[in-house]
User: Fold these one by one.
Assistant:
Number 1:
Amino acid sequence: MIRFLMLGLLRDRSRSLFPLLTVAAGVAITVFMFCFMSGIKGDAIRDSAAFQTGHVRITTAAYHQLEHQLPVDLALLETSELLSQLRATEPELSWTPRIRFGCLLDVPDASGETRSQGPALGMAVDLRTDRAEIERLHLEQALTSGILPVLPDEILLSQQMATQLELQLGDTVTLIGGTVYGSTSMVNLRLCGTLRFGITAIDRGGFLVDLATARSFLDLEGGATEILGYFRSDFYDMNQADLLATDFNNRFQDEQEEFAPLMLPLHRQSSLGELLELWGYFSTILIAIFVFVMSIVLWNSGLMGSLRRYGEIGIRLAFGENKHHLYRTLLYESVLIGLTGSLIGGAIGLTLGAWLQYQGLDYGFAFKNTSMIMSSVIRAQVSPAAFFIGFVPGLLSPLLGTLISGLAVYRRQTAQLFKELEV
Amino acid sequence: MTAEPVIVINGVSRLYPVSSGSFAALSDIELTIAAGEFSGLVGPSGSGKTTLLNLIGSLDAPTSGEIIVLGQKVQELDARGAARLRRDQLGFIFQTYNLLPVYTVFENVEFPLLLLQMERQKRRDAVMDILERVGLADRAGSRPAQLSGGECQRVAIARAMVKHPSLVLADEPTANLDADNSHRILQTMLTLNRDLGTTFLFATHDDKVIQYLRRVIVLFDGRIAQDEVRDETAVSAGTPGGYF
């Protein structure tokens, strides 16, 4: 009987090919969309992680409370020991110290008098020994003129700020601020390059210096306002980050000690958790819409198929096949079509997703005047979930379609068979 | 020696609800069909032929009365029991053949045996045997679309006969066939009736069929108006009879 039904399925294209193509197309779109959305979500996470949050971030508890004020006096004072520990115990993450601080940026004239000045937001990263930081922040791509700092007295300024302050490469700027101990601090630096990140906060008044320069300026030898950790796979693993943070905080947290280090995973910083949750809902809604729409399409095709197969169903009933068996075989057929369609559609969707992940789609030409360097290339992300997500609509839709359209088998009055079969 | 009855109908009525009350498609039918008969329900459209065939075929249940088919009270069968009776004992032949277009002749004829879960070699032998009998063994691999109307109906007969049912119900089996094909089909059925002892019951108003019937049961307005057993002379003379 199975062979008989399979033969019918294979030979009757309207019963197999059309639903198979519908399922495969729907699944391919679903899988690709899922990869695409995961990619965009991944980009958002990557950007946020690269500039601000890391995949996990360690600050002092006190700094975390007031971080919007950039309180360098609440920074981690001695980081080398902690970094050594972290690198030894958590080798699957790459660890790096950073300093974020605010100061006044003064531009002197030829006689040393102030020509112009303005408040500026500084970020100090390990530019000279940690190549990963340069790649993580896409500094080479963000460079609009000049070169990256090679000497400790060099500074990178945002293109916008350099233009506003009428600075040329090689000009001297003076940073005026306070040390972690409260005394005034000044340092002269040479402008070696300009940057444009496409991130308003940094582009408006941001500058970048080497970590050693900032430490010296802030009198924060061996210290940092934060230590960022990045998964080496570059994919943010929420559960692992949570476990890591819980374990770290259990070891280091002390309610009496405001300088005790505190680790926070990315999704517990800057409302990113809510954003990720929103993405989750959005993905679920998208999948649900696809399942619903495809169910309607396949229900329709199921109805059409049932109408076409009215004679066959009538014959099978007349020759003594019972309704339960008939209904069951219709459901098996739909599962088979759903499974095959899901495999084909999944393979297509994953191939497209993988292509977009590795190749990327550069839409920068459409936004020539923006400098959104991080997101001008759209990339998908093929995750393990993408291998399975297609089976939800792929199996559910034809099954739902057949469940509904197949009910007609039960409603059909057997007594009408002779009349129906003599059309 | 009297043959065992295959069908016994006692006081059967079938009413259908209509807006003004109910419509009697059949009223107080009394009928017995013996094994091996080649008989027909004859009458004009609306006389109740198909309704009676439905009741005998366990496709419908009577409003009142009793129908016993091959020893089973049809009105007491549930859907599963009725399906079992059809699967095991009955064969159906329809006016429009109703062959499954995506299957070959062989596969169409094989279908009732699949429902009986007969083993493969026995199935194959039974199908080829019946195809030989209807003269279509050489067309076993053809699809219905490649056959003529007469050949299609012979496939339908083979499908109905392949499991050697006790009773074959045929509703207007020649309605779509020309005279030559009709006679060939009826000769085939008559031969099967004689060789295998299968009981045939037709519902028809076609003179071409009527002239082959050994017993003619005339229905009119849901009642039996005439029940005539015809002698061999009348049958072999091929007289239609002018029943209505």
Number 2:
Amino acid sequence: MAQLMAQPMVNNIQYLNSLSYRSAFMLVLKRDLTIAFRHKDDILNPILFFVIVITLFPLGIGPEINTLSRIAPGIIWVAALLSTLLSLDRLFKSDYNDGSLEQMLLSPHPIFVLVLAKITAHWLLTGLPLIFIAPLLAVLLHLNEHSYGALMLTLLLGTPILSLIGAIGVALTVGIKKGGVLLSLLILPLYIPVLIFATSAIDSASMNLPFTGQLAIIAALFFSTLTLAPFAVSSALKVSTN
Amino acid sequence: MHTTNETTSTPLLSAKMLTCIREDRILFEALNINAYSGDIIQVEGPNGAGKTSLLRILSGLSVPYDGSVCFNEKNIQKVREDYHQNLLYLGHLPGVKGEMTAQENLAFNLALQGLNPSLAENTLKDVNLLGFEDSLASHLSAGQHRRIALAQLWQTKAPIWILDEPFTAIDKVGVKALESLFLTHVDRGGCIILTTHQDLALPKERIKKLTLEYRFF
């Protein structure tokens, strides 16, 4: 009797068709945002770090307008890199520690969809706030008035790259007890192209020169990481949980 | 190691010539397992014998050093999504988020499997968590975490269950309820592979035992 019923039980699983990539994506995104909003210090920590680092520079260097406006793009972008790095750990660590990462890897959905949802949640909580705060802090650094548009655009295209590349590093190091140092060593060199082209775009804008070239390169980096990083992260997670 | 039952039907899950090596120690080699529908396979062995490693290989979380695992005669590496639709694996970590309530945790796990998340509220009653629906999981006990994870068993449609120490931190009444659920599941044509150090209070002829020995080399 049991044998007779076995075949339909396996083959009749159609209910999953109702769950598309989109709803799987929304499911994980909503869960990660819910968890983050119940754990507010995780959200505030990187943002406060960003604000504090940037406000310390005018105090340390002195209020001279020319110096400050010259170094402003670099300061803002380096602070953005470091604050992203600070927040990367929570991307997979707690899920790894409590076993929910295993459950996600064993779910019937393609892993890259779930991974992309987690990275999106991370960007919404760490990258997006920076885009709104950066122009206010740029005033402190006397950023050239022509540069604000370039600053916003580079942050808008650049911060998702930071989350996407960072996720690869976290996925590779999540199984290691003290992976923090290794993570910085892995990730920071990969952030250099974004840093160079972003600051160069803002510099060009301050001299009233076109900066579409640099922006195009950042956009290219964004789209290539957006399409490739989720697959790299899925493979890295499989290796880490092996 | 394991005697297969004499049947012509194909096994739901089969492992062929599995070898697992951890820390330069062979945990098991050339292990063959066939799980047919209706089977309850209890994996036994001392600590460190490789029970969890075996279950992780069977679930597809780990890759064996040698050998293959097949679902319906197809290698699970090739039919991953199809296999995982038909599999429910509960590891020794419950996978419960402390920041979410009991009901949210269960609803997420159900939704991830493609089930209706609104079933969560009623299912929590089945595992004796009535009244704890809206408590944050971080305020609940280890046994209650385990119950949240196990609650999926009441709703899942997956025929293959792989359970790593499902009775950890569960009280006697809970163990009874689980055992009767196991019987219902295999009678419906599912199969269960589990590890436990307790003796199952199920009819002896229903359980197939697979014993892993601790090897020193």
